[in-house]
Amino acid sequence: MSDCLFCKMVTGEIKADVVYENDNVLAFRDINPQAPVHVLIVPKKHIRTINDLQETDASLVGEMYLAAKEIASQSEISEQGYRAVMNCNAGAGQTVFHIHMHLLGGRAMLWPPG
Ligand code: 5GP
Ligand code: ZN
């Protein structure tokens, strides 16, 4: 998608503070962090929202969680705890329409979220 911010991060057209990468997933620090650790984990494939996921994307979503586990370990927040969350559509706070998992940690998390 030529006009997608996160696709531009994937191609390198826009610089990202990358913390993890494999063939299918890129992870970089959020520009406006909401916790001491705030990383966005994105599939390299453009998928607009969770609603647009296909059966064939199942392993890709699994890879996003495995990346979260790895980054949490690197960031030394595995034991303390962290949140791995995706917002779907504007009502849930999605502002960038290329799916991404927020990995948040390094502070106590409240529940329910706002
Ligand atoms: P959403 O609100 O869609 O769930 O999350 C989008 C996230 O992308 C927000 O947390 C926002 O701070 C982050 N973001 C927006 N623009 C940029 C950017 O240019 N670079 C980075 N690294 N993060 C961004
Ligand atoms: Zn995209």
- Distance from first to last alpha carbon: 31 Å
| Bound small molecules, deduplicated | guanosine-5'-monophosphate, zinc ion
What composes the largest sheet?
5 strands, antiparallel
Number of DSSP strand runs? 5
Mean pLDDT: 97
At the first level of CATH, the class is Alpha Beta
Q: Give the second-level CATH assignment, the architecture.
A: 2-Layer Sandwich
- Looking at the structure, the CATH topology is HIT family, subunit A
Number of helices: 2
Portion of residues within helices? 10-25%
Shape: globular
Give the ordered list of helices and strands: HEEEHEE
Description:
- With 114 residues, this protein is an alpha+beta fold.
- The protein has a single domain, classed as 2-Layer Sandwich (HIT family, subunit A), CATH 3.30.428.10.
- It is built from two helices and five strands; from the N terminus they run αβββαββ.
- The protein has helices at 5-11, 58-74; strands at 18-21, 25-29, 37-43, 82-85, 101-105.
- The protein has a five-stranded antiparallel sheet with strand order 1-2-3-5-4, covered by helices on one side.
- β1 (18-21) and β2 form a beta hairpin.
- The longest helix is centred in the middle third of the chain and has 17 residues, at 58-74.
- It starts with a helix and ends in a 9-residue tail after the last strand.
- The model has no long low-confidence stretch (mean pLDDT 97).
- Residues 1, 4, 6-7, 46, 98 line the site of zinc ion.
- The site of zinc ion has 6 residues, from α1.
